[in-house]
Amino acid sequence: xxxxxxxxxxxxxxxxxxxxxxxxxxxxxxxxxxxxxxxxxxxxxxxxxxxxxxxxxxxxxxxxxxxxxxxxxxxxxxxxxxxxxxxxxxxxxxxxxxxxxxxxxxxxxxxxxxxxxxxxxxxxxxxxxxxxxxxxxxxxxxxxxxxxxxxxxxxxxxxxxxxxxxxxxxxxxxxxxxxxxxxxxxxxxxxxxxxxxxxxxxxxxxxxxxxxxxxxxxxxxxxxxxxxxxxxxxxxxxxxxxxxxxxxxxxxxxxxxxxxxxxxxxxxxxxxxxxxxxxxxxxxxxxxxxxxxxxxxxxxxxxxxxxxxxxxxxxxxxxxxxxxxxxxxxxxxxxxxxxxxxxxxxxxxxxxxxxxxxxxxxxxxxxxxxxxxxxxxxxxxxxxxxxxxxxxxxxxxxxxxxxxxxxxxxxxxxxxxxxxxxxxxxxxxxxxxxxxxxxxxxxxxxxxxxxxxxxxxxxxxxxxxxxxxxxxxxxxxxxxxxxxxxxxxxxxxxxxxxxxxxxxxxxxxxxxxx
Amino acid sequence: xxxxxxxxxxxxxxxxxxxxxxxxxxxxxxxxxxxxxxxxxxxxxxxxxxxxxxxxxxxxxxxxxxxxxxxxxxxxxxxxxxxxxxxxxxxxxxxxxxxxxxxxxxxxxxxxxxxxxxxxxxxxxxxxxxxxxxxxxxxxxxxxxxxxxxxxxxxxxxxxxxxxxxxxxxxxxxxxxxxxxxxxxxxxxxxxxxxxxxxxxxxxxxxxxxxxxxxxxxxxxxxxxxxxxxxxxxxxxxxxxxxxxxxxxxxxxxxxxxxxxxxxxxxxxxxxxxxxxxxxxxxxxxxxxxxxxxxxxxxxxxxxxxxxxxxxxxxxxxxxxxxxx
Lengths: 514, 325
Prior knowledge:
heterodimer, A: Rossmann fold, Rossmann fold, 4 domains, 6-stranded mixed sheet, 18 helices, B: ABC transporter involved in vitamin B12 uptake, BtuC, globular, nucleotide-binding (chain A), P-loop_NTPase (chain A), ATP hydrolysis activity (chain A), ATP binding (chain A), ABC_transporter-like_CS (chain A)
């Protein structure tokens, strides 16, 4: 029997009192795609950091191609042909695509960089691997997160790796790009590469992987073959409880209209948006990158200023001049970029939870520490935030718990409209269900909730109705109970245009105005 | 089976040691100078150290602490000190008395702060560049007003005599430090504004997305910083009985050094008033001791700068080892 390409054995790692990894085994055969799944906090990230040489394990061994390594750092690991594609690794925004792609491995003539050759070569590679076209000299800062991800993958491929580790690579990609990515990964495997693939999307794991290692609470609980194990079984192994009702939705009779948009438009981003949000209603919103859905959501929080049309809040014409203005008018946003806009990783749970409503704890300019602690503890208990205490820095929390903090900071404010931007991205199934439950509860308590998501089954599961945007316009509206992912996707991609009339109930009035 | 080894244990010990290092270093330096420089521990020297050096730098550094806590810096502290001092002296000489001169000086300082705040909050210029501009303008304006740097002395009949006042056995300037430190320290550590400053200083985008007004917060911070400097300006001109153009600029580097020493040595890595005061004391004790053992002013500067760098280097070295996830 040949030695496995990668073999981690009995890896343990503690952070203070937390046991992040407990005798974890991971055996990846050469030329296979190996999935690694687990709830957030299960130890996936820590395991990957041990493998990358960023963390040192307290005990255990690492062998690559049967060769046991000791005392290694990130450089040695990379020299051995193990490369990582991280969920959130940043590329410098001021670099051109070519510079970012060849960073540290620049093409040169003697001491001189061949910038133009780099840009040309980058364009060729991106076209070849991903059928992507960038204008020559495009800057990284001009790309959206999906394109940056693709750039990272291309960059890793340039290093001719033996083992590629994908850490949540598909989080920011839309369906078409995910399919492409999966096809590329299969192609890489067929060329003899060994792949470790970490994802929260079990459907991807199922269709892609040859073997799957399931982690739970820092232990390896199972190694399964996804072809003979159902997604539901894998999910059960991950959480060790029945996920049961994945989408807890209570039926609420919508109340009066809270927020109404009439003919709203902003630049080229979106136009002629008419929609109304009612109390007690969860409205789903979806659209591809560039559909204008994101900009529409930002407009409702004062981050983008609409130029045409009007916004009515409780029947009164209004304008959200800034996020501060929007917050004062009862709007809450749980943003997509969680660790930049949603929580401050360096601040404590308490400081994060109370930040949006400091006035409630203020007496004569000073904060009442006891009130703050009481309120934070209440929210921690109510939302089930897993933390050592309210003084713990948020960076020590898992993604799902960070998201609960990002949502929790609004709960004390009695907001009337909640805007959620990709609320479940990068969080595990268990935490997702808890977030869904919270969304449902907000609606039950009389708030209007607008959820922007590209996870279509999720949107169908938690919304009352779903709006689909395509190229800046509202393309369709569906009753969530009477639609499936395929129809939503057809609308979002514009597949219905001309070919299949009747598939997508287009609102004629809106298209007529275009 | 080989283990992958663990080295994480040593870090908390090192950083705990470092947190204690500044007080220990001050004690060690005091001990050194009390042996090496006879007269260092004399009442006369100690009171001059505290009254002439500590008070002024402490008040300026307290203002600077707020600017640093908000993620910025205030390079124009000297300008605020000088303008307050100028207004104070001119108003006294004009026969208006302390009742007008003190508020007048505070207003002059606040104007410098408002100018900064306008550049930062209004035009969106980064604090570093905005206050650098204010510093240049302030210095040039003073040169124009004072014929290239001529002091303006306070006329004999209207000498303020503030520094001679004692209350409960403690000189007034020390009471002022205590008052300013208490107000700024309590607001920074326990106040609503302090929390907002912390949020802006740690992660400005989060503060914005949480509905805080970044403009209003930086407005308050830079006016508050200049107001502290104005208090220092009043004490300065009451001490030397004159307005000496551009004398405030001497505080800039030491104030920054003191604030960053306090920041990097605190457990949380946040700018804080007690840490700043400890940093000020450290700088003052060294300068005074070196003066007594006969080093000239320039060597004092070299030694002070070197020691500040040493403390900061230790502190940053310990920080680099902390987990970076």
